[in-house]
Amino acid sequence: MGLREQFTEAMKASMKAGDAATTSTVRMIIAKMKDTDIATRDLTNADAPQQAGDEAIVGMLRGMVKSRRESITLYRQGNREDLAAKEEAEIAVITRFLPPEMDEAGMQAAVAAAVAESGAASVKDMGKVMAALKAKHGATLDMGKAGPLVKAALAG
Asked: Among 19, 39, 102, 139, which one is least packed by beta carbons within 10 Å?
């Protein structure tokens, strides 16, 4: 079952259960997905896919989680624990749709393989390594955590 179908099923289930918070979050995800579809649409080629693929949707979901984590930090600084709790609940719903992230050992191995594959020799080649990682492990690798690992691998 693709992500789009998972969103639809989650919407139906949350509405039947009367879970307003989950329903609201899933609606927000679907609206953001439609925005992503519009942004990726190729108007010059009618034969091109008119919907974003699962890879783009996973990236969108990761962006949603990242923005909510930033909001939580700001809400806690402003002593707004109620709003921080709402954002945390939204993160819990969003992460249900994300593939499991790679563990630390897997990340180290992926970084080492990407460094060897790209032929990177110094920190100046970090962009090549990050591009290789994103192409190969984009859905399961948190690029924010991978950056420092790549930098450390290239520096030493």
From this structure: 39
- Out of 72, 95, 118, a domain closes at 95
**Which residues have C-beta within 8 Å of that of residue 69, sequence separation ≥ 6?**
87, 91
101-123 pLDDT tens trace: 778 888 888 888 888 888 877 78
Alpha-carbon Rg for the chain, nearest whole angstrom, is 19
Are the C-beta atoms of 52 and 33 separated by less than 8 Å? yes
Q: Are 154 and 125 in contact (CB under 8 A)?
A: yes
Is residue 108 domain-shared with residue 129, that is, in the same domain?
Answer: yes
User: Taking a C-beta distance cutoff of 8 angstroms, is the pair 37, 51 a contact?
Assistant: yes
pLDDT tens-digit map of 24-74: 999 999 999 999 888 887 767 767 667 878 888 888 898 899 999 999 999
Same domain for 41 and 13?
A: yes
**Residue 79: predicted pLDDT:** 95
Token pair 């790679």: residue: 102
Q: Domain end: 95, 122, 139, which one?
A: 95
118 and 63, same structural domain?
Answer: no
How many domains is the chain partitioned into structurally? 2
